[in-house]
Write a structure and sequence with these properties.
By secondary structure, the protein is of the alpha/beta class. Helices cover 44% and strands 18% of the residues. It contains 27 helices and 33 strands. It binds one RNA strand through strand 8, strand 12, strand 13, helix 10 and strand 25.
RNA sequence: GGAAGAUUAGCUCAGCUGGUUUAGAGCACCUGCCUUACAAGCAGGGGGUCGACGGUUCGAAUCCGCCAUCUUCCACCA
């Protein structure tokens, strides 16, 4: 096959991905090998691939492919998340665009639309992952709302309910009075908003419900809620208000009597130090109310209007009521003053309506035991976090975990399996039939049509926390007596999880809880937290900013391998990623480099009778060691999840060591204007190394490596680099590397002189070196530096330029090209530097406290520095002397 | 306001238990090369008082304190 001069990714990628799929290379079944398992962080089912997904899934794929090549039975389970809030709001928006309001639809009609939407968009993101090269076991693709997984969620709910850990409670939700729905905290936008601070007089009651002439002053931004006040609260340490202890005050206008209570929550130096407590209409007040057993009086209805409990201004909108009540308070003499005030106010992301904190009945899951278990999992190290700093964050949250509100006022999701009897009592069962049976125990005559299932669905995380279990065996969660099926027994616990730190609590912590509860052990051994992908100037990638490129466009332009490299080059664990297209270009350049190195190797002609030249033998020996050395480093980097370091090590091995040094060293010289031949020993080594390099980089660049690996020799159908064994580090003599490095430095010295003196690389120079230099690498210097090497005792008065390779003196003979003054100036500069350096080292050695305290090895090293420096100075001085005499 | 983390070359980052670091890498930059694998290339080069100030130590980018700036998470203050 002819190879084009440039690598064409587009042609290659689809071909090999189809080949991999055709042979089911990504598919895993339990076997006798060690499993390596990753479950994908399931993207939203209607989502579109963005740069965050690219980063995350590239990392996942690198880990999976690396494990596969290390002989593990690698299984990467893909799937999607039903994402109730995001998906439902997309469906609502789509219906709205068609002129359909969700309110006009029944639950069944709406869900029909939602499923249609899911069928239409559900596969997109998984197909996009294929373009990236993701080696997911597609036969195992799961969806969090598919029947089996939904059943698992329902069973889990019933399980916890019967265990007594799920209860119905009241919670303050963010109510959107326009959309008539609760919205999540994420959907509330806090904006500083100008308003007023109303200072109101509350008169002290005489005990009979009549005002005295004494009063206290509270400051509020919401005077329309005073009718719902349950108490006035002051700080117990606030001496100004001690006279109020045990007193009761009267709510203005309606003269309802409320107590004065004390609580640390109140800031003494904010407002007047007196807080009106309105449990029904403020989150904090609600909590104070709980502590002090205060009455909860809800005076605002779902539309944001005052209801009859308010007694006055009934039916008025909350903002109209505010204006009116201010006037009424003023007329009644209760308004002391009004201040301008700016405070953060929550607005609904969807309707821009001001959010009304509203109490509502919600379902909760107790967190105390689960959180304790999950904290232990991480603190004991059974699950490791990378980077470790997230353990702190995790601990803080787990120690302060509040009960988990698991109900959502939506339709898209698993419907809560609570069935209400007409009298308001309820039963919790996995099916309507079971619920009817249970209901009959309470009320023998009850019929199915009398039962009404809870309208709410469960939080999406209440399904995704089962993911590492339910993708293998959906029967398991909620059935403690169930024996794990073959898959679950084999694949669980999974190995690594790659995800963003933003969902450490929402998802990671809860998966650990579910894992401990249902499996009795951690769901994964390591959690690798990626950073957030930002643009060059540090802004989050977002649709509204338009600063997020379409990954598919990038793949089309540069190739998937280049995109993968580009993302990994700038990703150290836990740090945000500053995305820059230049890095993808770098990846594309690397692809091209690999491609062309193969063109060179493939173009070699082999002379079966040729003997291996000394320089080639040396290069082979060196690269062998270098390869082992790098493989060991790469293994270490992978172990520590330093993926970008692993990549950089391979990158340099391929580009600098293999292409720039090894190939140049073994490249046959020209014979009669044509490239000469390579001997068979060197040729075989060269191909072996090339293959080793392909294997090393394959996890990161799956496509180009498969293409070239397949091209290297005739492969059978069904063979793939994916399952080739990863290169293994072998022991080597460290001197091999050290000596070759000396040769490289000598060559660099010669090249530097060429550059300086403008001498063409083609012109062969004469290099003199003093004896003692490792002889075996001299042929390398001769070839790579295009020099002939002579050893000499003295350089005498030769014309030329000297330089040092560590402690070895070198000298390039040049005739008529030396500017003596320039050389002298340069040498003197070097000499001055060395003398200063020597003085520093000697000062250190002369310091008794240093020699007394420092370890022997450190002192020894300083002595060596001293000796090296001395010999350099000696050499520089003799060169100077020679130059000055010439 | 609370918590965690960061600050090293123009950019992105390594630098693990203080001493083989006389602070490194990749990219970018500058100079010279179309040398028959690759100009998406080759060869060479410049560039940092390790955020500021104190402290511990024979010795600090590394440990401690304080300040500044930034990021994230939590709470968003009647």
């Amino acid at each position: 096959m002819e190879l084009a001069a440039k690598y064409n990714a587009a042609e290659v990628e689809d071909k090999w991905y189809a080949y991999w799929l055709e042979h089911k290379f990504f598919h895993s079944e339990p076997n006798e090998k060690e499993p390596y398992t990753i479950v994908i962080p399931p993207p939203n089912v209607t989502g579109i691939l963005h740069m965050g997904h690219v980063l995350n899934n590239t990392l996942n794929d690198v880990l999976i492919r690396n494990a596969r090549m290390h002989g593990k039975n690698a299984c990467w389970v893909p799937g999607t998340d039903h994402a109730s809030i995001a998906t439902e709001s997309k469906v609502v928006a789509k219906l709205k665009a068609q002129g359909i309001s969700k309110d006009d639809l029944t639950r069944e009609e709406f869900l029909k639309h939602a499923w249609e939407w899911k069928e239409e968009h559900g596969g997109i993101i998984l197909n996009q992952l294929r373009k990236l090269g993701a080696s997911c076991d597609w036969d195992r693709t799961r969806f969090t709302m598919e029947p089996a997984l939904s059943e698992a969620v329902i069973n889990t709910f019933v399980y916890f309910y019967k265990k007594g850990w799920i209860y119905k409670g009241v919670r303050m939700v963010n109510w959107d009075p326009e959309a008539l729905t609760a919205v999540s905290d994420d959907e509330v936008i806090h904006k500083d908003t100008k308003s007023h601070f109303y200072h109101l007089r509350y008169y002290i009651s005489d005990g009979q419900g009549n005002p005295t002439d004494k009063y206290l002053v509270i400051a509020t931004t919401r005077p329309e809620t005073i009718m719902a006040d349950a108490a006035i609260c002051v700080n117990p340490n606030d001496e100004r208000h001690h006279w109020l202890r045990g007193k009761k005050v009267l709510i203005p206008l309606i003269n309802r009597e409320i107590p004065v209570i004390e609580d640390d929550y109140v800031e003494m130096d904010f407002g007047t130090g007196c807080l009106k407590v309105t449990p029904a209409h403020d989150v904090h007040d609600y909590e104070i109310g709980l502590r002090h057993n205060l009455e909860v009086l809800d005076i605002i209805d779902e539309h944001g209007k005052l209801n009859e409990k308010a007694r006055i201004l009934v039916g008025e909108d909350r903002f109209v009521a505010r204006k009116k009540i201010v006037k009424m308070l003023e007329e009644a003499g209760n308004l002391e003053k009004v201040e301008e005030y700016t405070s953060p106010v929550g607005y609904s992301e969807r309707t821009n309506a001001v959010i009304e904190p509203r109490l509502s009945a919600q379902w909760f899951l107790k967190m105390d035991t689960l959180a304790k278990m999950a904290l232990d999992t991480v603190e004991s190290g059974r699950t490791k976090f990378i980077p470790e700093k997230y353990v702190n964050t995790y601990r803080h949250w787990m120690e302060n975990a509040r009960d988990w509100c698991i109900s959502r006022q939506l339709w898209w999701g698993q419907r809560i399996p609570a069935y209400y009897l007409p009298d308001g009592r309820y039963v919790v069962e996995a099916s309507a039939e079971a619920a009817l049976e249970a209901a009959k125990a309470i009320c023998p005559d009850i019929k199915m049509e009398d039962l009404h299932q809870d309208e709410d669905v469960l939080d999406t995380w209440f399904s995704s926390w089962l993911w590492p279990i339910s993708v293998f065996d959906p029967e398991m969660p909620g059935h403690p007596d169930h024996q794990p099926n073959k898959d679950l027994a084999y694949y669980y616990p999974t190995s690594d999880l790659v995800t963003g730190p933003d969902i450490i609590f929402f998802w990671v912590a809860r998966m650990i809880m579910a894992g401990e509860e249902f499996m009795g052990r951690e769901p994964f051994s390591n959690v690798y937290f990626t950073g957030i992908v930002r643009d060059k100037i540090g802004r989050k990638m977002s649709k509204t900013l338009g600063n997020s490129p379409d990954p598919l466009d990038l793949i089309k332009t540069y190739g998937a391998d280049a995109v993968r490299i580009g993302m990994l080059l700038c990703s150290s664990a836990g740090n945000d990623i500053f995305y820059d297209e230049a890095q993808i270009k770098q990846g594309a350049a690397f692809c091209n480099k690999i491609w062309n190195s193969y063109r060179l190797v493939k173009g070699f002609s082999v002379d079966e009778n040729a003997k291996q030249p000394a320089v080639a033998a040396e290069a082979v020996k060196w690269f062998d060691a270098k390869l082992s050395d790098t493989v060991a480093q790469v293994e270490d980097h992978y172990r520590k999840f330093r993926i970008s370091d692993a990549l950089m090590a391979i990158y340099k091995l391929f580009w600098d060591d293999y292409c720039a040094w090894y190939l140049e060293a073994i490249k046959p010289a020209f014979v009669d204007g044509k490239p000469g031949s390579v001997d068979p020993v060197t040729y075989k080594a060269t191909l072996d190394y090339f293959e080793a390099l392909l294997k090393l980089i394959h996890p990161v660049m799956p496509f180009i490596t498969e293409e070239l690996w397949q091209n290297m020799e005739e492969r059978k159908d069904g063979e793939t680099i994916m399952y080739a064994a990863a290169p293994v580090a072998r022991p080597f003599d460290p001197d091999t590397l050290v000596h070759f490095e000396l040769a490289q430095e000598a060559v660099n010295g010669v090249r530097g002189i060429r550059n300086q003196k403008n001498i063409a690389p083609k012109e062969t120079l004469e290099l003199k070196m003093k004896e003692g230099f490792p002889a075996e690498v001299v042929p390398v210097i001769e070839k790579m530096g295009n020099v002939t090497v002579d050893s000499a005792h003295e350089f005498g008065d030769m014309q030329g330029v000297g330089f040092m390779v560590r402690t070895y003196e070198m000298f390039v003979a040049l005739n008529g090209l030396v500017n003596v003054e320039e050389e002298i100036a340069k040498l003197e500069k070097d000499l001055a530097y060395q003398q200063k350096f020597l003085a520093g080292v000697r000062a250190k050695l002369a310091n008794e406290r240093f020699t007394a305290h420092a370890p022997a090895a450190v002192i020894e090293n300083e002595r060596k520095k001293e000796a090296d420096s001395l010999s350099k100075i000696e050499s520089l001085e003799s060169q100077l002397k020679a130059l000055k005499n010439s």
